[in-house]
Design goal:
The chain has 25 helices and 29 strands. It is an alpha+beta fold.
């Protein structure tokens, strides 16, 4: 064929060859002008047709593939390990109601259901805890996977989890074993393909073990207790500002809160440590309030609870109900864990918020100048305890790290592989959540089984970390509060800054006895309210913390409960959606003293003048207020905080109000030679804010709204990163509220791209009716399934955003009559 083509264009002589070749080409162009057009159109049409086919066929194939991965909720499956048949009835929202003849089989079926719906979420959780993310993710999305693995291996979370198994009550170990058996039965008998995440990562899940379930508790303890970066921040602030100016930055802190740095550390720099050590958790919070029968429409207690964690799709929580002759329990589970974390069991109901106690300390250890393998203690030089950890990284050579520990805990300044500590020193983390004999899972399990407040109180004695404010009540009408955990007693110091480890002066000398931890039983007021505010008064004999979160949400809840109208389940659900910002109401009079510099500023101020402080998604005022406050905080503090400013930057309304009225020295920009006033700061920040909003949303203020920026970030952690297709897995929705409203919508204010994206909030809400626990209400932020092609991937999103909820009740006949699917799990026949 090649020779034939060559012969067709071969000329007799050079001259004619050129002319003939040129003539043929020109003839094609000139003698048949339509032929080229037809040919071009034909080729173009073919290409477009091919591209169109691929554009349709590839996504369709992908969708069919993903659809085929959705497990069936119908039929009969023979299961190795079951002792008796179990009915799994999934209601119209995909919530499993597990009907079993005993609790062991119920835990087995719950493990099976979790694996069907959330297998990759479970896999990712255990890999994070074990420090095994990089071996499947590699560095394709940056270094974060390796960074996580370094930290988890340094802390030894999974090793400590395995050690804790032996300390658990026998019944809890049995529950963990039965749950793991259910997951593994699914892995060996599944008919559908693995979820798409496993396919993309070319990953085959390993069998599940009880330690895999326990590691979630360790991760939560770490995330909900992560104040060690605050210690480093305070140490750096003390090098920049005097203590009284630091208190200006945090005006909600108790007036007598000391801010000091041990004299032995005053010459040391913690700049590099703060820059390199990872942030173990975001700003977290929750709400709970419990009103006894004297204040409710039913004459029995009503309990409302909504824990606030990071938002993503699927959400952390998974609704489930278990029905056995021994126990009926309903509420929120976490895929990977057999116990209900929050819920009711037909006798008691309970809720959690984070205490924000200080259970972590950074100890600066001095390396022995004569031997770098040792460090100094009050009793002389001691060797570091060391071990080697091998981190596998997909597509790259293994990474071997040496982990060192001191008498206080693991050396976290080694995490980034460089000298994160001051020269001649290392930084060790002391943390109650790193105990090798942690019985917290046993406490939660016994709480699940408790039938009254007394049994619940006894169960909580096993809870070690993180410290939680637990409100609980029983069907008899008793109400109670308890804050269980191991909380350190320090020989000296307040836990707000790093301390020297070689002197022994700041060592922990024990933990607060269980009987001396904060508690209340049937308080005279008839109510218990906590929104992460301070839980003890000045007369409490122990130090829980030196810094407490802003009490503004608790104040707002108290205002709503002060109404003369008895509380009902419906009213409690409405209260959970409250978006009134007391901070906005407090600072608005100060903001409105601003003189407008032009017509647009006058228009914005007029809107704010008639606004009641409600952070409603469909209103322009919250957007103007939030952006103005963002720019105002920058104007007031960025010049003096310098490199520390990004970590401080937030909607700090109370601090800004304090600086504008009581500490006006902050209004002067120290980076200029002029002397600026607070009026200057207000005017300049308003102008900057309006310019930013206009650039993003146009000139017409009537088209502005808070929901344009404030959207719950419900996106898939892995699939959301896939180019082009990532948006298909995004369930984000506009929401009300901000970081300081009861309906909490925390944002990353320092972000340049999305400063008001709603990244943390109440991914689960519940209201418990102790007059009729079947009337209790539940909702999660996304859906039950982790598969984006499942009908239950995002079917709770709208309900959640608008304050709706579902009940988890009904017998098998009622559930089937209302459209529930039925999956029967039967024991595998004996051979």
């Amino acid at each position: 064929m090649i020779g034939m083509v060559h012969a067709a264009v071969q000329p007799v002589a050079i001259g004619p060859r050129i002319s003939i070749y040129q003539g043929r080409r020109n003839g094609w162009d000139q003698r048949s002008p339509d032929s080229m057009t037809r040919r071009t159109l034909t080729v173009t049409a073919a290409l477009l047709g091919t591209l169109l086919f691929l554009a349709v066929a590839v996504p369709c194939a992908l969708l069919l593939w993903m659809r085929a991965e959705v497990p069936s909720g119908r039929g009969t499956l023979s299961m190795p390990g079951l002792s008796a048949p179990v009915e799994v009835l999934r209601d119209r929202n995909g919530v499993p109601h597990i009907v079993a003849s005993n609790l062991g089989d119920a835990y087995f079926a719950l493990g099976h259901a979790h694996a069907q719906d959330r297998l990759f979420q479970m896999e990712f959780m255990r890999r994070v805890g074990a420090g095994r993310v990089a071996e499947v993710v590699g560095t394709r999305f940056g270094s974060w996977a390796v960074d996580i693995d370094r930290m988890m291996r340094t802390l030894g979370l999974y090793r400590r989890t395995e050690s804790s198994l032996g300390a658990l009550p026998p019944e809890t170990r049995t529950a963990l074993d039965r749950y793991a058996a259910g997951i593994n039965a699914y892995l060996t008998t599944r008919r559908e393909a693995l979820p798409i995440e496993f396919q993309l990562l070319r990953l085959e899940p390993e069998p599940w073990s009880p330690a895999d379930s326990l590691v979630w508790g360790k991760l939560m303890a770490l995330q909900l207790s992560g104040n060690y970066r605050e210690e480093l921040r305070n140490a750096r602030l003390l090098r920049t500002l005097p203590p009284e100016r630091i208190r200006d930055l945090y005006p909600e802190a108790p007036a007598d809160s000391p801010v000091t740095l041990a004299s032995e550390l005053r010459g040391l720099s913690f700049d590099h440590a703060l820059a390199t050590l990872p942030d173990l958790g975001p700003d977290l919070a929750s709400n709970e309030w419990l009103v006894d029968g004297r204040g409710t429409a039913t004459g029995k207690p009503i309990l409302a609870n909504d824990p606030h964690l990071g938002l993503e799709a699927p959400i952390l929580w998974y609704l489930a109900r278990i029905v056995t002759p021994e126990l009926t329990i309903a509420g929120a589970t976490v895929p990977g864990v057999p116990m209900h974390v929050l819920g009711h069991n037909g006798h008691i109901a309970w809720g959690f918020t984070t205490t924000h106690s200080d259970t972590q300390d950074l100890f600066i250890e001095r390396i022995d100048p004569l031997d770098p393998a040792r460090y100094l203690t009050p009793d002389g030089s001691e060797p570091f305890r060391t071990r080697q950890e091998v981190i596998r990284v997909a597509g790259q050579p293994d990474l071997t790290i040496t982990v060192r520990e001191t008498r206080h805990g693991p050396v976290i300044s080694d995490v980034d592989g460089s000298a994160g500590a001051p020269a001649g020193h290392v930084i060790a983390l002391a943390f109650t959540g790193l105990a090798d004999d942690d019985t917290t899972a046993g406490g939660l399990h016994r709480l699940n089984l408790a039938r009254n407040v007394a049994e619940a109180s006894a169960a909580l004695s096993l809870h070690k970390a993180p410290q939680q404010n637990v409100v609980y009540t029983d069907s008899k009408g008793t109400t109670a509060f308890m804050a269980p955990a191991l909380v350190p007693i320090r020989r000296k110091g307040d836990g707000r800054t790093p301390v020297p480890g070689w002197t022994g002066e700041y060592d922990w000398i024990g933990t607060i006895p269980y009987d001396e931890l904060p508690r209340a039983l049937d308080p005279p007021s008839g109510r218990i309210v906590n929104a992460n505010n301070r839980v003890v008064g000045p007369d409490y004999p122990h130090r829980l913390a030196s810094e407490w979160p802003d009490p503004v949400r608790a104040r707002r809840i108290g205002q709503m409960l002060d109404s003369d109208t008895p509380l009902s389940v419906e009213r409690a659900a409405i209260q959970q959606m409250d978006a009134v910002s007391l901070h906005a109401r407090a600072i608005l009079p100060v903001l409105l003293t601003t003189r407008p510099g032009n017509e647009r500023e006058a228009q914005a101020l007029a809107l704010l003048r008639s606004w009641d402080g409600t952070m409603a998604r469909d209103r322009a005022e919250p957007l103007i207020y939030a952006w103005w406050l963002r720019e105002l905080v920058r104007r007031l503090t960025a010049d003096e905080l310098g490199e520390l400013f990004p970590a401080y930057w937030d909607l700090r309304a109370e601090a800004a109000r304090h600086m504008l009225t009581e500490a006006q020295g902050w209004c002067d920009d120290v980076s200029t030679s002029a002397s600026e006033t607070c009026a200057d700061a207000l005017s300049a920040s308003l102008a900057t804010a309006l310019a930013a909003i206009t650039k993003r949303h146009g000139n017409d203020m009537s088209g502005w709204s808070w929901g344009l920026e404030h959207k719950a970030a419900l996106n898939h952690r892995l699939l959301g990163r896939v180019p082009v297709l990532g948006s298909l897995f995004d369930l984000s929705v506009a929401t009300d509220g901000d970081a300081h409203t009861v309906n909490r919508g925390t944002t990353k204010v320092a972000s340049s791209d999305a400063p008001f994206s709603h990244v943390h909030g109440p991914g689960f809400r519940a209201v418990y009716d102790l007059a009729d626990l079947d009337n209790s209400r539940f909702v999660i932020a996304t859906g039950q399934s982790g598969n984006p092609l499942s009908p239950h991937w995002g079917d709770f999103v709208t309900l959640w955003a608008n304050g709706g909820a579902v009940t988890l009740a009904g017998d098998a006949n009622q559930l089937r009559a209302s459209g529930a699917t039925r999956l029967l799990l039967t024991p595998e026949p004996q051979q």
